[in-house]
Structures are given as structure tokens and as C-alpha cells.
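[retry 2/3] Type 1 glutamine amidotransferase: previous attempt timed out, resubmitting with same input.
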Amino acid sequence: MSTDLQGKTIAFLCAPEGTEQVELTEPWKAVEQAGGTPRLVSTQSGRLQAFDHLDKADTFAVDTTVDVSDHTEFDGLLLPGGVANPDFLRTQPNAVAFAKAFFDAGKPVAVICHGPWTLIEADVVRGRTLTSWPSLQTDLRNAGATWVDEEVKICEEGPNVLVSSRKPDDLKAFCQAAVEAFKR
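[retry 2/3] Type 1 glutamine amidotransferase: success.
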């Protein structure tokens, strides 16, 4: 195990239901293996229900909620995908404000799959270059971003480092790039 992220705490922002499990668990393991502390942040306390595409998968204990936490407790933010997860988060003002605060503070953010919907709602993708699940490309362009079809995109043209990937097949590259960004 490396110690690249020793002393760093990374927020994983997820809705109470609908997170793509592998997009939560693989980056979570990568943060732990790099010596960091992942914390599960949601809009409700208790447990969240993850999914394997459209099928219910495991549940995970929520560490804290967006109404009692803020970006100052964390060194970076990771937004997993799943269609329902970011679709719900973007309708929750506290969750949107929580995500936006990482950009305002210049802290690294990593996002995968449908996760950019939350960032679109936070109005933090304008002028940035990122990738996502292909169906979000029009949404991202309409929000002022440049969309690219790449395994992982690291954008440093903005107030923070923004790491993005398209889908679960990209997780190896995504996890490596996210850990690198969180090291800074």
C-alpha cells in the first residue's frame, strides 16, 4: 500500500439510491490503497442502495450528510455515476452547493459516467474540458464545456483539477488519475 494520500480525506458524494456500485467501490479502494480516507457523503443518513446497472446491488453506510458537512472537511471530491444517482443529486440544492464548494476552494474533483450532471447544475463546467457517458455530451456542451471521447481527461484549465471518465471500463485509468489529482 502506498502512502500517497496519507492524511487526506476524500468525499464520495452519492444519492441515497442509484449509484453505480463499481464506480463507488473501485475508486474507494484506490483511495484506501493510496493511504487516504474515503468518506461516504449523501443527502440522507443511514445506508445507500447501490446498483449494478439497473439491478439492486449492495448497500453502504453513509458517513455524513451534505447538510452537516462542508468542503473544509475534505481534500477532494469524487462523484460516481449511475443514471439515477446524479439525476437525484442535481435536484438537491445542498448537494449541488457541496459539489460547487470544491471548485470554489480549488480542490480536486473526479467524476465518472453520468456524474457530470451534478456539476452542470452547479455551473462549474463552463470553459472546462471533460468526458462522460456519451449521452451527456450535449448537456455538457450546452453548459459551456468541451466534451471529448477519451478514457480519462484531466482538465487543469480552471480553479481546480478536474478528472473525468466515461464508464466502468475506464475505471483503472480513472482511479489512477483521481489518486494523482488528490495527491496535489
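[retry 2/3] Type 1 glutamine amidotransferase: The two ends are 18 Å apart (CA to CA).
[retry 2/3] clearing retry counter.
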